[in-house]
Design brief:
The protein is an alpha+beta fold. It contains three helices and four strands. It has one domain (3-129): Holliday junction resolvase RusA (60s Ribosomal Protein L30, Chain: A, 2-Layer Sandwich). It has helices at 22-42, 71-77, 110-118; strands at residues 3-9, 52-60, 89-98, 122-129. The mean pLDDT is 87.
Length: 135
């Protein structure tokens, strides 16, 4: 089962944001561009046609966005990059982690550990392709 992971620095946009209009759309577009660019750095083209499982962890130091509201913008941003269409995603796990509660004995991947040490807020995304065609 192929696995890919990447990090997007910054606080994710929330699909359910009450603020409407151009400034919010620009912020959402910028966030989705950041997700796409980070995904492109680790994922070889073309986008997979296989079923996909996604894990999204939002690391924060201040008021976090709702765990369910970050999903839509991230999932949409990965269309055509990680997978052909987000309808291929058969399972999503999403969590938020308050950085100040992490202890020094926790074990992290090298990528995640580096960002925990230096980034105030970020999103860690892991994707798994299902070779067996689970859907």
């Amino acid at each position: 089962m192929p696995e890919f992971e990447f990090v997007v620095v910054g606080q994710p946009t929330s699909f359910n944001t009450k603020g409407k209009g151009r400034p919010q759309k620009k912020k959402r577009d910028n966030w989705q561009d950041n997700v796409k660019n980070a995904a492109r750095k680790v994922m070889p083209p073309p986008a997979t046609l296989l079923p996909v499982e996604v894990f999204i962890s939002t690391y924060f130091t201040r008021q976090p966005v709702d765990v369910d509201n970050v999903l839509k913008d991230i999932m949409d941003a990965m269309n055509g990059v990680a997978y052909n269409d987000d309808k291929q995603v058969y399972k999503v796990t999403s969590e938020r982690v308050y950085l100040k509660t992490l202890d020094s004995h926790s074990v992290f991947s090298p990528l995640l550990g580096a960002h925990i040490a230096k980034s105030p807020e970020f999103v860690h995304i892991r994707l798994f392709w299902s070779e067996e065609g689970v859907l």
